[in-house]
Amino acid sequence: MVSVLVTGGAGFIGSNFVRFALDAHPDWHVTTLDKLTYAGRLETLHDIIDHPRHTFVRGDVADASVAAPLVRDADIVVHFAAETHVDRSILSAGEFITTDVFGTFVLLEAAREATHLKRFIQISTDEVYGSVAEGSSLETDELKPRNPYSASKAGADRLAYSYFATYDVPVIITRASNNYGPYQFPEKVIPLFVTNLIDDLHVPLYGDGGQIRDWLHVNDHCRGVDLLIESGINGEVYNIGGGNHVRNVDLTHRILELTGKTEALIRHVADRQGHDRRYSLDTTKLQALGWAPRARFEDGLAETVGWYRTNEWWWRPIKDADPAFRAYYEKQYGKTRV
Ligand code: NAD
Ligand code: TYD
């Protein structure tokens, strides 16, 4: 059996990756290490938590007593665990440094001592390039992160590279664009807007809504990571982008259409501080290995809206019943919800 450690596997992309990996690789045993922060939920792993080739460990990546033995036992580490929401990083950045930077350091230190580790996949993000006015970012472009989240991810990204360059840890770094799909926490724009609209609540559109994101279906992201485990080159960085550049205002109209609601439910609210205007990735390097995104955005978005419609059991306890989520929501949006 190939021993695969997935950190952050109870979150959005990590859980999709664990599901994908168990299905695609009958010779893999996957261990999920997750702290179960507000964003990590066992419900997200409901169908695979008891899979015979899956082990769940609750723990903090920044706690070497838990994380280091797991890294030392692994053939492959896929490190998704992070604090991930830009708005939360603007409200309070401490946890981003502790988890995204220090947590990555703890895993990399353990990786130095691992005897049979073949890959350490550092899941970085396109946000490390900062706002890209025109053209598309290449892996060799300068990193210009502009908010505490993307700066913490840039720190982790370069720290991971340094452990390749200095200690020969078999690091590959991925920089993906905005993901969408099932099990995304309803603080992020697509699930927030879809679930608000299902309930006839307003959707808070920041600023003029002209910001552009390059949407990537989470399954295409998982396929990209999987391909890199197989065929990537250690020490290299690979962009993973969906090639779907959509303005937030257009995204909002598509979601209104898919939920059958009118634009009267759009509430224009103050812009995010330091809001990155546009992200865009050049994915030639990954495409050269044989990867291409499969999901058409129109279809993927419709499917995703359908998923939130039929899986209220998953998001209602967060949105309607979790006091921590309510507290965050009110801090962020005031009375926008009603
Ligand atoms: P998420 O917020 O949905 O999930 C993060 C998971 O990490 C949760 O399960 C949480 O409990 C866990 N976690 C947080 N702190 C931890 C800690 N200290 N120890 C152990 N577990 C901890 O995030 P996501 O959207 O699935 O993102 C996963 C990764 O992908 C992140 O590294 C993120 O930076 C990167 N990424 C995300 C996107 C996107 O669009 N969502 C795009 C590019 C890259
Ligand atoms: P988000 O899903 O938070 O992802 P990121 O900031 O990592 O790109 O936001 C996506 C875009 O949607 C971003 O330009 C901010 C915008 N947005 C809103 O307009 N309103 C909202 O309530 C949220 C959460 C995001």
Q: How would you describe what is shown here?
A:
With 338 residues, the chain is α/β, with parallel strands linked by helices. The chain folds into two domains: 2-179 and 216-240, NAD(P)-binding Rossmann-like Domain (Rossmann fold), CATH 3.40.50.720; 186-212 and 246-274 and 297-333, UDP-galactose 4-epimerase, domain 1 (Alpha-Beta Complex). Helix content is 42%, strand content 17%. The chain has helices at 12-24, 64-72, 86-91, 94-113, 148-167, 189-198, 218-231, 248-259, 284-287, 297-310, 312-319, 323-333, and strands at residues 2-7, 28-34, 54-58, 76-79, 119-125, 171-176, 179-180, 203-206, 212-217, 237-240, 244-247, 266-269. The chain has a seven-stranded parallel beta sheet with strand order 3-2-1-4-5-6-10, with helices on both faces. A three-stranded mixed beta sheet has the order 7-9-11. It has a two-stranded parallel ribbon with strand order 8-12. The model has no long low-confidence stretch (mean pLDDT 97). The structure holds nicotinamide-adenine-dinucleotide and thymidine-5'-diphosphate. Residues 86, 178, 188-189, 192, 204-206, 211, 213, 248, 272 line the site of thymidine-5'-diphosphate. Residues 7-8, 10-14, 34-37, 39-40, 60-62, 80-84, 99, 103, 123, 125, 153, 176, 178-179, 185 line the site of nicotinamide-adenine-dinucleotide.
